[in-house]
Amino acid sequence: MTIQHQHMNGQALPPVTNGRAHDGHANGSPRAHEAVEARMHEARRIVFELEQALRAMILGQDAIVAGVVQALVAGGHVLLEGAPGLGKTQIVRTLARLVGGSFARIQFTPDLMPSDVLGTSLVVTTPNGGKDLTYRQGPIFANLVLADEINRATPKTQSALLEAMAERTVSVEGKPIPLPDPFFVLATENPIEMEGVYPLPEAQLDRFLVKLIVRMPDLETLTLIGARAEDPPPPSPLSSPEELVFARSVARSIVAAPHVEQYAAKLVLATHGHRAARYGAGPRAMQALMACGRARALAAGRGVVAIEDIAAAAPNVLRHRIGLRFEAEAEGMTSDTVVAQILATTAVG
Fold first, then answer.
1. Which domains does the chain have, with CATH numbers?
2. What is the mean pLDDT of residues 208-220?
């Protein structure tokens, strides 16, 4: 059974294939299967429209656009690495407008303090003339937070942000305050400059679901960018935070066969056995592979995770979770090289 696809801006929305996705209520009846497929189709529409609108604004970065949207659907945070002027900040700003939720931008600098991110308690005068403490929320309390040039802040400030990313709460006077739902951090970093930066430690990098490399556009794309007389107008919201939460719940309901889960586990274990690796990925990488695999399956309109979904997600999930030996770096190897070799030598089943 398939649901008829819709059209948007002249492009066809691929049909949802019969893939046995479940939402906990499917009992094998035709009506239950139709309800499941209807949920899949609606979630697919949300992802499809977000990707198409973002691609129309951000030229020549289709892979980055797909990676960012799928990471949001998977429920994780994104680290964008690239040279200045490649549109990293624009991607996040545009996505925030399309999603329609609250948005905050934090410019990380060496003098940024944790309280500038999380908020602070202030002494206020009460109506009866006394003194009391009141908490003023920081910019972290938003659905989508842009952490611009995160590697320019000190480790203390980085840790404050990354703790909020992991726990999705902020502790104030010993009491946890939940962050909005959905809550996503998209951080950018510049890999070129070496002075005045504080590289993220391995344990903190692991908090990001994926790391995406924003590369220089090709000749054709640069020509199109130059042909624009002015920047396009800001887009109108296409969805809402609630719709993003819905799409995330549908993605999590997509199932994977045992051999697909085993393949993902093999990839993670192979990062430890590679000759170039000083350290490899951990259990959180396994969770990230499966989450991204489900999001990619949803984006493709399939109700099950395929081997190709795991393989396609592997570079983004593993590249920041592999530390290279000095000898490997001297040979010019990168973590992407290691992932490519692992994908080429890891057997299915």
1. 255-349 (1.10.8.80)
2. 90
